[in-house]
Write a structure and sequence with these properties.
The structure holds 2 protein chains of 2 kinds.
Chain A (H helix, E strand, L loop, with lengths): L5 H26 L14 H8 L7 E3 L5 H6 L4 H8 L32 H15 L6 E6 L6 H12 L4 E7 L2 E2 L2 E2 L20 E5 L3 H16 L5 E6 L17 H8 L3 H11 L5 H24 L54
Parallel strand pairs in A: 1-2, 2-3, 3-7, 6-7
Antiparallel strand pairs in A: 4-5
Helix pairs in contact in A: 1-2, 1-9, 1-10, 2-7, 4-10, 5-6
Chain B lengths: L7 H5 L5 E5 H15 L3 E5 L15 H5 L4 E3 L4 H13 L3 E5 L10 H15 L6 E6 L14 H5 L5 E3 L4 H13 L4 E6 L7 E5 L12 E4 L4 E5 L3 H16 L3 E5 L2 E3 L3 H11 L2 E8 L4 H13 L8 E5 L8 H7 L3 H13 L1
Parallel strand pairs in B: 2-3, 2-4, 4-5, 5-7, 6-7, 10-11, 10-13, 13-14
Antiparallel strand pairs in B: 1-8, 6-12, 9-11
Helix pairs in contact in B: 2-7, 4-5, 8-12, 9-10
The chains are: A alpha/beta, B alpha/beta.
C-alpha cells in the first residue's frame, strides 16, 4: 500500500466530499430549473475518480468520462466552471457551446469527452504518443464505463495504445449499468478483468469504492507508464447509485442490490477509516465539509450571476483562420433585416451588405 | 394536377373511428402493429428492451414480444446495424434504433458501404430500417441535436424519410419496415410529444416512400421543407397571411430519397417563387439539391431566385440563446418570403 501523508489522506476525503456536495448542489439547481439539459451524477463512484486522478502529477493528461467529476476537480478544474457548464453561461469553458464535462483545458492537461463513447481514448492516444516520441516523462489516464468499453472506438483505442506501448492508464469503471443495460448484457466475460487478455495489457481489479486501493492501483499503473512500461488497465468494481441521468429513476434496479452497495458508500467508508485510524476527528471532518459547502454556495451564486452568451456568439470560432466565423443568415443582415422591407418594393441585393449582425 | 401529389386524399378518408395520437405514439404504434402483423419484424438497440427506449417508444415491447424480438444490445452501433443487415438477408425485417441519430456515426461503414451497396453488388437487398431521433431545440448540445440526412444523401442505395406529422410518422415507418431496401428513418425529437393528431384506428395507415404532401395550400410563394421545419414554416405562413398579405404554400417532402421531384416542380410552377427550408447546416445541405431540381425542372416558371433558409454553418450549440440563434427563425422565413414576393 502506498504511503500517503495525513494531509494527502485528508485531501482525498476533501475531493470526494467536494464531488458529492457539488453534485447535490447541482441537483438542487436542477430542481430549481437552473440546469440546462441533462444532469448525470456519479454517486457511489467518487472513490474511483478521485483515487485514480490522485496518482497523476502536473503535466500528466486526464480524459474524464461523464461520471468522473471528482477526477476533474483533483486535476485542477474549478467547481465554478462546472456550474457554468451546467447552466450554459457565457463564462463557461465552452462559452455555452457544449455542456457538462465536455471541455478541454490544455493548460490543465484535460481532454474533454464527446457524447459518442470510447472516442476519447483514441484521441488521448495521440497525446500519449507525443509524450513517448518526445521522451517526455508524462502519462495519460482515461476512464470508460463497461458499456463504453464495448464500442468499436474503445476496442481500437486500447489495442492501439497497447501495440504502441503508450504511457496510458485506462480505468474501466464497472458500475454495473449502461443506462438501463446490465453489464452482463454488455459483455459475456465472467470477470471484467478478463478483457485485458485481448489487448495484452496488465490489469488490476480493485474495489472501486475503496479510495486507497484505487489509488494504489493507479499509482502502480502510472509508475509503469512513466517508466516506459506501456499501457495498463485498471478494473474498478463499483456501482452507479442513481439513474443514468436525472430523468431516469432506474426502475430496473433491484432495491436489495442498491441497498447492499449503499452500505459500501465510498465517502462514508473513507470517513470511518480516517476516524478509526485517528487521522481525523468528527469535528475536523465536519469542518472540511462545512468549508466546502460554503465554497460551493459562493461558486454557484457567482456562476448563476453570470450572463448567458450573446446569440450571435453562435457564429464564432468555427475555424482558426479565415473564415473564423459562420456567415450571418442573409435574412438577418441589416439591409433585409426583420421588418425593414417595404412590401412591393424591390429590396437591395441581400449580399450587398457587410454581413454584420443586427446589434 | 395540384391534387395528384398531395397526400391529403389519404388523410381525408379519416371519417371512421379515430384516436388522438402523438407523433411519438404514432411511431410506437407503427412498430407494434408491424411486429404483430409480421413475426419477422424485430427491434434492436441500446436500452430498447428493459427500459423501453430512451424516449419510451418501445415501452412494453419486451413484455409483449420477448427477448428474441426486442434486443437490448451493447453500446455498439456498428454491430447493431451489421446484425440487422445479416438478419434482413435471411428474410427478417429488422428495425435498428439509434438512441440518438448523432450516434449513427460508428455505424456509418455498415450503412454506406455494406447496406447501401449490397443489392447493387450481389442482387441481395438489405431491407433494414435504421431509425432514431434527430434535430435541435432540446438544449441537448452538439451530440444529441444533429440533422444528419446530408451525410447520407450522396449514397445511392439508401432511402431516407423524415416525417413531420403523426400520420406520416406512422405511415412512413410501416412502409419503411416493408421496404426491401435500407431506409433511414429520421424522427424529430422536438415533435415527439408536441404534435397530436386524430388518426384513424379502423384501417392501416401506409404512406408511400417518395411522395411529398402539401401541408398548406398557397399562391404566392412555395416553402419546400420537412421535419420540424414544416411547423415553423406553418407558423410563418400564418403571419405572412395575416400581416403581409402573402399566401405561402408549404410542401412537406416527407421522403428525402427518393425525392418527389414532380411535387417540387409542381408547386414552383404554381407560385413561381421558392424558398427551401431545412434544419441542417447550409453548406452541402439538401437545399442545394432541391435548388438544382427547381432549376432543372421549373426554371421557366421562376419569378425570383431560389432562396435557402437553413441553420447556420456551425455545430449545434447548447446554450439556449446560441441554439435559438442557430436554428431558422419564423422571422427568417417571413423576411425571405417578403423578399421573394417583392423581387
Amino acid at each position: 500500500m502506498a504511503s500517503l501523508t495525513r494531509d494527502e489522506l485528508l485531501g482525498l476525503y476533501r475531493y470526494m466530499y467536494l464531488t458529492r456536495a457539488f453534485e447535490e448542489r447541482l441537483e438542487r439547481l436542477f430542481k430549481q430549473g437552473h440546469i440546462v439539459g441533462g444532469l448525470y451524477r456519479s454517486l457511489g463512484q467518487e472513490a474511483t475518480a478521485v483515487g485514480t486522478a490522485w496518482a497523476l502529477e502536473e503535466g500528466d493528461w486526464l480524459a474524464p468520462s461523464i461520471r468522473d467529476l471528482g477526477a476533474m476537480f483533483v486535476h485542477g478544474v474549478d467547481p465554478i466552471d462546472m456550474f457554468r457548464q451546467y447552466t450554459a453561461r457565457a463564462a463557461a469553458p465552452t462559452g455555452g457551446k457544449d455542456n457538462t464535462t465536455h471541455f478541454t483545458r490544455p493548460d490543465l492537461g484535460l481532454l474533454g469527452p464527446i457524447s459518442p463513447l470510447g472516442t476519447q481514448l483514441c484521441v488521448l492516444n495521440g497525446v500519449a504518443w507525443t509524450f513517448r516520441v518526445e521522451g517526455r516523462d508524462r502519462v495519460c489516464l482515461t476512464y470508460q464505463g463497461e458499456g463504453a468499453s464495448r464500442t468499436g472506438a474503445s476496442h481500437e483505442g486500447l489495442n492501439f495504445a497497447a501495440v504502441q506501448r503508450l504511457p496510458m492508464v485506462v480505468v474501466l469503471e464497472h458500475n454495473r449499468w449502461s443506462f438501463s443495460t446490465r453489464s452482463d448484457r454488455e459483455s459475456a466475460v465472467a470477470s471484467w478483468k478478463d478483457v485485458a487478455g485481448a489487448y495484452g495489457v496488465p490489469v488490476r481489479q480493485v474495489d472501486g469504492n475503496d479510495v486507497l486501493e484505487v489509488f494504489d492501483a493507479a499509482r502502480q499503473a502510472v509508475a509503469r507508464a512513466r517508466g516506459g512500461g506501456g499501457t495498463s488497465l485498471i478494473v474498478a468494481e463499483t456501482y452507479r447509485m442513481l439513474g443514468h441521468a436525472q430523468h431516469d429513476p432506474q426502475p430496473y434496479v433491484e432495491a436489495e442490490e442498491l441497498e447492499a452497495w449503499g452500505r459500501k458508500d465510498p465517502l462514508d467508508r473513507f470517513g470511518r477509516y480516517l476516524l478509526d485510524h485517528g487521522l481525523a476527528s468528527e469535528d475536523g471532518l465536519g469542518d472540511v465539509r462545512a468549508g466546502i459547502d460554503r465554497e460551493l454556495e459562493r461558486a454557484a451564486d457567482e456562476a448563476l450571476s453570470g450572463a448567458r452568451p450573446e446569440p450571435a456568439q453562435a457564429l464564432a470560432g468555427v475555424y482558426a483562420g479565415e473564415p473564423r466565423d459562420a456567415e450571418v443568415p442573409w435574412t438577418r443582415r441589416r439591409v433585409v433585416g426583420y421588418g425593414e422591407l417595404p412590401a412591393g418594393v424591390a429590396p437591395a441585393h441581400p449580399f450587398g451588405d457587410d454581413g454584420a449582425p443586427d446589434e | 394536377m395540384a391534387e395528384a401529389t398531395a397526400a391529403e386524399p389519404e388523410r381525408a378518408a379519416a371519417e371512421g373511428t379515430t384516436k388522438e395520437t402523438t407523433y411519438l405514439e404514432a411511431i410506437r404504434e407503427a412498430l407494434w402493429e408491424e411486429m404483430k402483423t409480421d413475426e419477422k419484424v424485430f427491434i434492436l438497440g441500446e436500452d430498447v428492451g428493459v427500459y423501453g427506449g430512451a424516449f419510451k417508444i418501445t415501452q412494453g415491447f419486451l413484455e409483449e414480444f420477448g427477448e428474441d424480438r426486442v434486443i437490448d444490445t451493447p453500446i455498439s452501433e456498428a454491430a447493431i446495424v451489421g446484425a440487422s443487415i445479416g438478419a434482413a438477408q435471411m428474410g427478417y425485417r429488422p428495425v435498428a434504433e439509434m438512441q440518438f441519430m448523432d450516434f449513427v456515426a460508428p455505424a456509418f461503414d455498415m450503412i454506406v458501404n455494406f447496406a447501401a451497396k449490397v443489392r447493387y453488388r450481389t442482387g441481395e437487398g438489405a431491407g433494414i430500417v435504421v431509425r432514431g431521433p434527430v434535430g435541435a431545440g432540446a438544449r441537448a448540445g452538439p451530440f444529441h441535436s444533429q440533422s444528419p440526412e446530408a451525410y447520407f444523401a450522396n449514397v445511392p442505395g439508401l432511402k431516407m424519410v423524415a416525417p413531420a406529422t403523426a400520420y406520416d410518422a406512422k405511415g412512413l415507418l410501416r412502409t419503411a419496415i416493408r421496404d426491401p431496401d435500407p431506409v433511414l428513418y429520421f424522427e424529430h425529437k422536438f415533435l415527439y410529444r408536441r404534435i397530436k393528431e386524430e388518426l384513424p384506428t379502423d384501417r392501416e395507415i401506409l404512406v408511400p416512400l417518395g411522395k411529398a404532401r402539401v401541408h398548406r395550400r398557397g399562391e404566392d410563394v412555395s416553402i419546400v421543407t420537412w421535419g420540424a421545419m414544416v411547423h415553423r414554416a406553418a407558423e410563418a405562413a400564418e403571419t405572412l397571411a395575416e400581416e403581409d398579405g402573402i399566401s405561402a404554400e408549404i410542401l412537406d417532402l416527407r421522403s428525402l430519397r427518393p425525392m418527389d421531384v414532380e411535387a417540387i416542380a409542381e408547386t414552383v410552377r404554381k407560385t413561381g417563387r421558392v424558398l427551401v427550408l431545412h434544419e441542417a447546416p447550409r453548406f452541402g445541405g439538401l437545399a442545394g439539391e432541391i435548388t438544382s431540381v427547381v432549376c432543372e425542372e421549373a426554371f421557366e416558371w421562376l419569378d425570383a431566385p431560389v432562396r435557402r433558409i437553413t441553420s447556420i454553418d456551425t455545430p449545434v450549440p447548447y446554450s439556449p440563446p446560441l441554439e435559438d440563434y442557430y436554428l431558422p427563425h419564423v422571422e427568417d422565413i417571413r423576411a425571405a418570403a417578403r423578399w421573394l414576393v417583392a423581387y
